[in-house]
Amino acid sequence: MAQEKSGVPLTAALVMGALIGLGAATGGYFISNGFYRARSERYVTVKGLVERDVRADLALWTISYSAVGPDLATASRELAQETRIAADFARAHGFSAGEIEMLPTTVNDTWAIQYPTAHPAADQRFIVKGGVRIRTTKVDALRTASEDSSALVNAGVALVDNYPQAPQYFFTHLNDIRPTMLAQATLSARRVAEQFAGDSHSRLGPIRRANQGVFQITGRDSSGEGDGGAADQGSIEKKVRLVTTVEYYLID
Hints:
single chain; alpha+beta; Translation Initiation Factor IF3; 7 helices
């Protein structure tokens, strides 16, 4: 009577229950076995370091200056004269027209500013600023020119510091050395891992995971913590540094 009320024969119900139980037991076995394998997995994480000395191949130098006058026309004429001197200075040091860029002119009317006391003197009302930027691959010539910057002052150019006055040097051929350095860093990591495996009486297995790391370009004498700032950009001699992180399996 119970079989007829439920609509499921007793024998079929018993078979279904047995299959469900068997499936749960089998699934439990594979799950637990998977956890066991994960727990037994052994690997080592190592770092590979490689450094290379390189030389900057691009140089930038911004020469900025200003002029003052009682009116805009006077200040502008003075600035134009300083621009001619700066451009002649750059050409005299061997830079072509394509390597010399004139920067935009800015004007400041000091009388338009509300001072707490009196305005500046009438002959200094307008301050006009401009500049010349040299962009070149002739890094040694640019360094020589920058060391002669006092000649600009002696010629009447009023240098200002609203732009970086020191030359900036850059290494732009990283892609040329990237593959070789990456291979060297990986080899360095493997040697460390092999030493670790030997010390732990294991054999080194394949790579489990790898992180290339970041290429860092610093000044030659940098501590390695440079961020590409003024100290690193001011050096012609550079150091390219790469630290990779690699995980290797260990085999008993």
